[in-house]
Amino acid sequence: MSNVDNDLHNPATFLPLSPQDFQVLLVLSDRPMHGYGIVKASTDASGKPGLELGSLYRIINRLMDRGLIEDAPAPMAQLDSRRKRRYYRATENGRRVARAEALRLRALLASEHATLLLEDQ
Fold first, then answer.
1. Exposure winner among 25, 38, 98, 114, fewest CB in 10 A?
2. Three-state DSSP class for 69?
3. Secondary structure, 3-state, 3-26
């Protein structure tokens, strides 16, 4: 395996992720979804979407180009529907990258400075 191949499978080479890339990887890490499902799953407790449908496909294309997500087969229920949707899932490397980013963020939040900042609230 060449150094380039090794770099593509090393999660650290993808970090830090943009918040939008991280959110898409989080949503797709446990099950395949179509675009609108990704937007709905990113909605926060207040009902505000974390992702905009208009920018979602640019994010999806970028993550696909980087090998972090891939096309997924549609669920059986979708196969009977007249409306055909494209489904996506995180690749194994995409899940490793999402985990590495989550660990990176957790370490940042565990720092003394972050703790002090959060206690000010």
1. 114
2. strand
3. HHHHHHCCHHHHCCCCHHHHHHHH
Give the tokens for residue 63: 């993550």
pLDDT tens, residue by residue, 64-99: 999 999 999 988 766 556 678 899 999 999 999 999
Number of helices (H), then strands (E), belonging to the chain: the values are 7, 3
Query: What does pTM read for this prediction?
Result: 0.84
For residue 6, what are its two tokens? 């090794």
Name the residue with tokens 């229920």.
77
Give Cα 66 to chain centroid, integer Å.
12
Residue of 72, 2, 1 lying closest to 37 (CA atoms)? 72
pLDDT digits (tens, 9 = 90+) for 47-61: 787 898 889 999 999
Contacts of 92 (CB under 8 A, 6+ apart): none
